[in-house]
Amino acid sequence: MHQKHDPDERRILKFPAVRPCEDVSPATLIEALIRVSRSIIACKTQFFSSQKRICREVIRQTEILLIFFEEIRDCGSGFSKTLNLCFSELHFALQKIRFLLLDCTRDGCRVYILMKSHFVANEFRVVVRSVGMALEVGIAQLGSLQVSREVGELVELLAKQTRKVKIETDPNDLFAMDSVRLTLDLLEHQLEPVRGAVSRVLGYLGIHTWNQCNMEVKFLEEEVINAEEDEDREICLLSSLMGFLCYCRGVIFDTLDKSEEITDRAGARELLRCLNPEDFRCPISLELMMDPVTISTGHTYDRLSIQKWLKAGHMLCPKTGEK
């Protein structure tokens, strides 16, 4: 019943949701619904680089569903065939919601998910409508379940909200998408993009370091390799975004790295000013030690100097006079 999918094997924005088998027991089905609901709610603490409002809304809806599922957990034996079908459809829809949320919080694909915002919003819209339709069928059966009036009212309200809620691309995402498209157009015509605008888009998506940018490039490279032969438009998008991110990696974050390097050099110079060069001179040769060795007395000498000192027949420490 409990389907496990390795995130490393699932391609981005592919949703291998599986419907429960027809003869699944009500108790098993409810437990599966509780598990998938909790995994969705766990995404609440993750960073959403885009689709923020939509993701928050579906998580809120799932929190209500979890309250409902946990309340009816102990009365699964009394499910009608209609109710079982309703819960099976909910389980299928919640699996898709979970996959969507995992993709929206996945590191390394933030620019790609942003540019697929219309597709992502439409997928959320379809799956939320599916939840609403399943709830409408189930509401008529609530009387057969031991559900408190408060929870019953919450479920009825949720069913109405899923019909009316507007699931659209966030205006901030649209603005960021337009900025990326403008940059792609400038790069295509071999014109220098406005670095400030590019940096704002990267900051909006939470891409702040060279390593994060490099992860985005590596992800796109993998997607190009794994793309199907009939995905020409997708390959074109992936290639364009890879060019955009390679520019960011080489220009935007190269500048940031140089700034950090200047800061590091200034710190190194400050550290050197605090050091006393005399502390690094060998007490025997009075020259800077190239190969320092600390002897049993706790004093440090240049290895070559201490060897010459011993070969000359001196058995006492030149600093303390100890043997």
UniProtKB/TrEMBL annotation:
Keyword Transferase: yes
Molecular functions per Gene Ontology: ubiquitin-protein transferase activity
SMART domains in alphabetical order: Ubox
Cited InterPro entries: PUB12-19-like_N, RING-Ubox_PUB, Ubox_domain, Znf_RING/FYVE/PHD
This protein's pathway: Protein modification; protein ubiquitination
Record flagged with keyword Lipid metabolism: no
U-box domain segment(s): 275-323
Keywords: Repeat, Transferase
Biological process annotations from GO: protein ubiquitination
Name by which UniProt lists this protein: U-box domain-containing protein
High-level lineage: Eukaryota, Viridiplantae, Streptophyta, Embryophyta, Tracheophyta
